[in-house]
Write a structure and sequence with these properties.
With 458 residues, this protein is an alpha/beta fold. The protein is 37% helix and 21% strand. The chain has 14 helices and 20 strands. A six-stranded mixed sheet has the order 1-7-6-4-5-8, with helices on both faces. The protein has a five-stranded mixed sheet with strand order 10-9-11-12-13, with helices on both faces. Helix 9 links the parallel strand 14 and strand 15. One of its GO terms (cellular component) is cytosol. Its cofactor is Mg(2+).
């Protein structure tokens, strides 16, 4: 099984993801990324600018998991032993690492986080120069280099580890630079998931002008994502209704995504947020090529909403890295996923939940409409997802029987439904997703297709 998944390396900390593996990945990443530009020499100053130095630079951060502490130590040890100077920024969101790498011109960024996964898991996300996520080919090259013999630097050739005390404030300043419409008059609840946003989000929203009530903002190393955050929206819903807030924002553990709850307690997911921002960007003239990028998993209602707004949609595979690739290829300004990962290329190279929430809040202020009204332009189609487990997923694309069954289902649904079969990237299963005008029809077709997949690939 490949070490890298759709969003870096992830697994049970200290069993799947060990200190030894973290150290080896750091060494291999240093070799691959530094070798591509071996003569680059620099050092970030307190303002994030770069001064001359003979060694490459990496920026390392982590979320609030206890295991992030020993994994950070291992990553720092691996990088410095490979001759890289490391700037430790502590607990910050994943998009903060991406921004700091781009801002400083560093060679490498490392974020230690398992995002929305439960606390026992952890992960490693890598960013290349410019703050972008690594291409699949570079991840494969890093994996191939793990454990290889190498000549270790000695003396002044080894790297140094420096605590960067200015990183948090530089990131907040970057976030606030996206705010052209103050949030005065808004009352917002933010669920920080006891994660990395706890250190940044409440302060940022207040400094942008909003009245803020923050919940689950006291990480202790063990409580990240524990019945809170973007995967447990009932906590935010309760708080929004109790406080009489205009809306609430829920982040995940590393704050690269944002979901919302409106004043009536309704969920506003990534598709709805993309709909609102796309319409707002179009109205302001900032939606490049009148196009938004979404993944194949966005609800059919999103595509209908964009058609009604006369906005084009380009689709990609699941994963914000693929969304970004398409945006960079075509010069688009906005893209995202149903899960709440949104990318605004004017301000970020990756999904940033706090930037997303700031943009959403500004649309509420500028429009003078409550969030529930803005979100109502998206009429969601019932969606059913069935996971067909323990099947030969690699044969999915070659099965004529499955193709025929999908064609028949699509003909039955017409323009009022959609079928998507997708092999999992990490497990031996096939995901069968069906959208239709009713739950019953979606369930019927999804279950019928699942039986065909099981029969053909099981």
């Amino acid at each position: 099984m490949a070490l890298f998944g759709t969003d870096g390396i992830r697994g049970l900390a200290n069993r799947d993801l060990t200190a030894e593996l973290a150290l080896d990945v750091a060494v291999a990443a240093a070799h691959i990324l530094v070798e591509t530009n071996p003569n680059k020499s620099h050092r970030p100053s307190s303002s994030g600018e770069i001064a001359s130095n003979s060694r490459p630079i990496a920026i390392v951060g982590h979320d609030s998991r206890a295991s992030g502490e020993f994994l950070e130590a291992a990553v720092v040890a691996g990088l410095t032993s490979a001759g890289v100077d490391v700037y430790r920024v502590g607990v910050l969101p994943t998009p903060a690492i991406a921004h700091l790498v781009a801002e400083s011109g560093a060679d490498l960024g490392v974020m230690i986080s398992a995002s929305h996964n439960p606390m026992p898991d952890n992960g490693i996300k890598l960013f290349s120069r410019g703050g972008g996520k690594l291409d699949d080919s570079i991840e494969a090259a890093i994996e191939a280099r793990i454990g290889e013999p190498w000549e270790r630097p000695t003396g002044s050739g080894v790297g140094r580890a420096i605590n960067d005390e200015s990183a948090r404030e530089r990131y907040i300043s970057h976030l606030l630079s996206s705010v052209s419409t103050p949030l005065k008059g808004l009352k917002i609840v933010v669920d920080c998931a006891n994660g990395a946003s706890s250190t940044v989000a409440p302060d940022t929203y207040r400094r942008a002008g909003a009245e803020v009530i923050s919940i689950f903002d006291a990480p202790d190393g063990w409580n990240i994502n524990d019945d809170c955050g973007s995967t447990h929206l009932h906590q935010l819903r309760t708080a929004v209704l109790r406080e009489g807030a205009d809306f609430g924002i829920a982040h995940d553990g590393d704050a690269d995504r944002a979901l919302a709850i409106d004043a009536q307690g309704n969920e506003v997911d990534g598709d709805a947020i993309m709909t609102i921002l796309a319409r707002g960007f179009k109205a302001s003239g900032s939606l490049k090529s009148n196009t938004i990028v979404a993944t194949v998993m966005s609800n059919l209602g999103f595509f209908h909403a964009m058609k009604n707004a006369d906005i084009n949609v380009e689709t990609t595979a699941v994963g914000d890295r693929y969304v970004l690739e398409k945006m960079l290829e075509k010069g688009y300004s906005l893209g995202g996923e149903q899960s709440g990962h949104l990318i605004m290329r004017e301000f970020a190279t990756t999904g940033d939940g706090i930037l997303t929430a700031l943009a959403l809040a500004q649309e509420v202020v500028k429009s003078g409409q409550p969030l529930q009204d803005l979100a109502s332009t998206l009429v969601r189609f019932p969606q059913v997802l069935v996971n067909v487990k323990n099947v030969a997923k690699e044969r999915l694309a070659d099965s004529a029987v499955i193709k025929a069954a999908v064609s028949a289902a699509e003909a039955k649904l017409g323009e009022h439904g959609r079928v998507l079969l997708r092999a999992s990237g990490t497990e031996p299963l096939v995901r069968v997703m069906v959208e239709a005008q009713s739950d019953n029809l979606a369930s019927e077709i999804a279950n019928d297709l699942a039986k065909v997949v099981q029969s053909e690939l099981g």
